[in-house]
């Protein structure tokens, strides 16, 4: 082969488009986020993106986020999950187990990271926490008997005269098993427990009317999806009916709830972003354990305490991770 032919061949190689495999590695990965809420301000967003950055992924630069919002209409989750699958996202993020269930119904292949899940084994999302075995992994926010007992103890320190306690919750799968620790904590504290199930926000007014009829002295609020999305309305109704309430997450107290004790949800979203980063780097959801929370926080809203006419014991104020004044 003469010199001119050799140079022509080299030029052709340089001009040729990259191979299919090279093109694939240069594609920016896409992460689908299946939200139950709306597109309004979200304090968890920055923490999730911070977790991604810990693994070198900067949204809008080397990873794209495809957000879909159910706007409180949980029946939309399956369609939104199917849409994300059709888009070919590399990972689906589901803030709760309801989103994870919808996503798993849409795909058994695309990895799914659940951020704040309840009872993922009982709901069939994973085989077990240590080795999920399928395409779902993430984090569980199951409070456990000791956390439920702690919530009840803290609430009774604020309203020690309470003899009847209202539990505001949702009729989720496995509700009986989840209710037993609350019933046991109530028995141990010698208070009666009256359960009010809420299927959608329209049930809240009648639930509070029922609490008044039952002469409930305080409320224990669960952390389920409908209640989370209705947290501002619940706080307003609790204030209207002069009912001190204990909530599972700080986001309730930030919008007017009295007191919350539960997992640090912002930390879970940061860790959720880290799990997505690990999957994008090659980890398999089936091999990543579903991790339990490691950080808990007590938040007290003194403005609401004043409006309710209750006094927060100084000992609780000293224990609080944050006091809203």
Mean pLDDT: 88
List how many beta strands DSSP finds.
Answer: 12
List SSEs in N-to-C order.
HHEHEHEHEEHEHEHEHHEHEHEHHE
- Please tally the helical runs, counting DSSP H or I stretches of 4 or more residues: 14
Second-tier CATH architecture of the largest domain: 3-Layer(aba) Sandwich
Low-confidence stretches: 1-25
Shape: elongated
> What Rg do the Cα atoms give?
24 Å
Strand order of the largest sheet: 7-6-8-9-10-11-12
The CATH topology name of the largest domain reads Rossmann fold
CATH superfamily membership of the largest domain, which one? Response regulator
Percent strand equals 15-25%
Termini separation comes to 84 Å
How does the major sheet shape up? 7 strands, mixed
The percent range for helix content is 40-55%
CATH class of the largest domain: Alpha Beta
> Which structural class should the secondary elements be placed in?
alpha/beta
Q: Count up the domains.
A: 2
What do these coordinates show?
The protein has 325 residues and is of the alpha/beta class. The protein has 2 domains: 28-141 and 266-287, 3-Layer(aba) Sandwich (Rossmann fold); 144-264 and 296-324, Response regulator (Rossmann fold, 3-Layer(aba) Sandwich), CATH 3.40.50.2300. The protein contains 14 helices and 12 strands. The protein has helices at 3-15, 20-26, 43-53, 77-87, 97-106, 144-158, 175-188, 204-213, 225-229, 231-240, 250-254, 265-280, 302-308, 314-319; strands at residues 30-35, 64-69, 91-96, 112-117, 136-140, 164-169, 192-197, 218-221, 245-247, 259-263, 296-301, 322-324. The strands form 2 sheets. The protein has a 7-stranded mixed β-sheet, sandwiched between helices. It has a 5-stranded parallel β-sheet with strand order 2-1-3-4-5. α5 (97-106) links the parallel β3 and β4. α3 packs parallel to α12, α4 packs across α5 and α6 (144-158) packs across α7 (175-188). The protein is elongated and about 60 Å long. Mean pLDDT is 88; it is low at 1-25.
């Amino acid at each position: 082969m003469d010199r001119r032919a050799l140079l022509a061949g080299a030029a052709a190689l340089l001009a040729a488009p990259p191979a299919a495999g090279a093109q694939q590695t240069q594609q920016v990965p896409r992460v689908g986020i299946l939200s139950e809420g709306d597109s309004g301000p979200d304090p968890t967003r920055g923490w999730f993106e911070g977790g991604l950055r810990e693994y070198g992924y900067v949204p809008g630069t080397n990873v794209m986020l495809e957000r879909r919002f159910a706007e409180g209409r949980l029946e939309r989750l399956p369609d939104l999950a199917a849409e994300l699958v059709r888009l070919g996202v590399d990972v689906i993020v589901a803030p709760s187990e309801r989103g994870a269930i919808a996503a798993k119904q849409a795909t058994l292949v695309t990895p799914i990271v659940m951020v704040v899940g309840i009872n993922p084994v009982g709901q069939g999302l994973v085989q077990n926490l240590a080795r999920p075995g399928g395409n779902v992994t993430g984090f569980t926010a199951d409070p456990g008997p000791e956390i439920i007992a702690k919530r009840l103890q803290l609430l009774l320190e604020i309203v020690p005269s309470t003899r009847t306690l209202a539990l505001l919750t949702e009729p989720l799968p496995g509700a009986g098993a989840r209710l037993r620790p609350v019933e046991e904590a109530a028995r141990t504290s010698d208070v009666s427990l009256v359960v009010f199930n809420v299927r959608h926000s329209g049930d809240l007014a009648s639930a509070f009317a029922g609490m008044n009829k039952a002469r409930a002295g305080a409320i224990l609020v669960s952390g389920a999806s409908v209640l989370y999305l209705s947290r501002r309305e619940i706080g307003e109704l609790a204030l209207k009916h002069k009912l001190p309430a204990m909530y599972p997450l700080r986001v309730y107290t930030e919008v007017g709830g009295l007191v919350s004790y539960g997992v640090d949800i912002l930390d879970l979203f940061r860790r959720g972003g880290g799990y997505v980063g690990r999957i994008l780097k090659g980890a398999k959801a089936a091999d990543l354990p579903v991790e339990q929370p490691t950080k808990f926080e007590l938040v007290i809203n003194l403005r609401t305490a004043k409006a309710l006419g209750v006094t927060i014991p100084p000992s609780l104020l000293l224990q609080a991770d944050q006091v809203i004044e």
